[in-house]
Amino acid sequence: MNTDPLHIVMQYAAARRRAAIRDRARLERWQESRILRHAERVREASPFYRELWQGIDSADWRRFPEIDKRAMMEHFDTLNTAGIRREDAMNLALQAERTRDFTPEIGGLTIGMSSGTSGNRGLFLVSRQERLAWTGTILERVLPGSLLNRHNIAFFLRADSNLYGSVRSKRVAFVFYDLLHPLRQHIAALNAQQPTILAAPPSMLRLLAGERRAGRLKIEPAHLVSMAEVLDPLDRQVIEETFGLKIHQVYQCTEGFLGASCSHGTLHLNEDVVHIEKDYIDAERGVFIPIVTDFVRFAQPIIRYRLGDLLTERKTSCPCGSPFTAIERIEGRSDDLFVLPARTGGGFVTLFPDFVSRAIIAASEQVEAYRAVLNTPQSLSVELDVRGDADRAEAERHVRQALADLCSRIGAQLPEIAFEPYTFVPGAIKLRRVQRRFAVNERMEPV
Ligand SMILES: [Zn+2]
Fold first, then answer.
1. pLDDT digits (tens, 9 = 90+) for 9-55
2. Where residue 158 falls among pLDDT bands split at 50, 70, 90?
3. What is the 267 CA–ligand 1 centroid distance (Å)?
4. Residues, beta carbon < 5 Å, ion ligand 1
5. Which residues contact 375 (CB under 8 A, 6 or more apart)?
6. What is the DSSP secondary-structure string of 197-209?
7. Predicted local confidence at residue 117, as pLDDT
8. Global pTM?
9. Which domains are present in the chain?
10. Distance in Å, CA 323 to ligand 1 centroid
11. CA distance 332 to 313
12. Residue 321 Cα to ligand 1 middle (Å)
């Protein structure tokens, strides 16, 4: 007998109890004890962490050296607690990707592969127990109302693993849609499924919104979930208008399920599963890079792991009363910070992706979609999709002016701007509306 659904319901109930904690101090005490216990177990089972933490007491876990994706992949074999070799895991993951049959497991563990926005592939291991806990928690955070109601969920994912395809019970149906399949196939399947919940990256939600406006997509979901990509303000507006619904955001990556929006639409960090330290890069605006300690995942422990994301904290508390940290927005990736030559002196100034987005969106109402790619500090490509009847040259002029104003405000030289038609198609790669194509060193100088 498959006991998975029962376990998921139990995990769901546990997540609900954790979310009911209302007192921040109590939450932090509870977290601390969990982390301490977890660190002791990890030290015992992972040769990599044992060596890394030598001479540091677990009570001082905040002093453990940070790791990142590179370290995680480099020391894969000794970091994971199941004795799985990277080569074996990679071969299996590649095979699953080729055949798009996401059932294989290795030693009872599911393997997930992240494409990685900069091309470096990441491998992730999750045990069955962890998968069920993940599913229970995500259902608790995402489902409107109770798990005991009927839910019919359409879930769009890139390169999936059986990490996600695990739920189908009497009440909850999950249908998995492969982002690499053609759109018309999705439309037909969605029209047949009639999902009550539609969960997809915003670039796909935007495409589906277009299909709905054109009358080809005939579904009436009661709930929209955006995940896996940064939700751009322009996309949000179009999608919400089309479906007449507020978007519910899920902040989830292969490194973990990090946050979800509450009934008030505020994104909260899942501090009942992960501890997040803030490395501020702009304290005044509250912009920080999260350093994640997951105190649930044991097969591949994630402890003091530096993510590449930029988050902005919310200055005011959320009326929902949750003690979980409220986030104003996900700004994008720290790799996408624009680095531009200063107007005076020989240095460089940085510009947040979010500022670039807002400048372009505010410049012209004719802009339907855009991408801004900084190829070198002196060269910026801007892809614009403008309304059918709009004057393209005029929209470009407004965008150019807005970017010039922005650069002048921050004391940066305006790069050479080349306008191009908009070409992005959702599917194989993640949409990044603002992107930097060159590397920089720690002093934020191009290399
Ligand atoms: Zn809230």
1. 888 889 989 988 889 999 999 999 999 999 999 999 999 999 999 99
2. low
3. 7
4. 262, 264, 266, 318, 320, 322
5. 381, 437, 438
6. EEEE-HHHHHHHH
7. 45
8. 0.84
9. 1-334 (3.40.50.12780), 337-444 (3.30.300.30)
10. 9
11. 13
12. 6
